[in-house]
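job 3f2a | input accepted
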Amino acid sequence: MPEGKKDDFRFQMHMVMGLGAASIHTTSQLIANVIFDLAARPEYIQLLREEVTSVLAESGGKWSQDTVNNFKKMDSFVKESQRLTALPGEF
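job 3f2a | predicted structure (91 res):
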């Protein structure tokens, strides 16, 4: 943050709003692309469903950061979806 802007709450508000808008857009795009990829590859749906069921059973049905970290196949699917969707030169 520029030195002269540390006490400028209007500037800070604009920065936070801009970052929030950007993060919402990218997250929405990611979710949409994953859903499209699942629709194009329905053979993965049952595999991912079984993983979610298994991991949740191990955690007693409770969602936590540790639970989400155990979704290895889901994580791989999302990462592959991102890789396939990335435009050339984006990374």
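job 3f2a | The radius of gyration is 19 Å.
job 3f2a | closed
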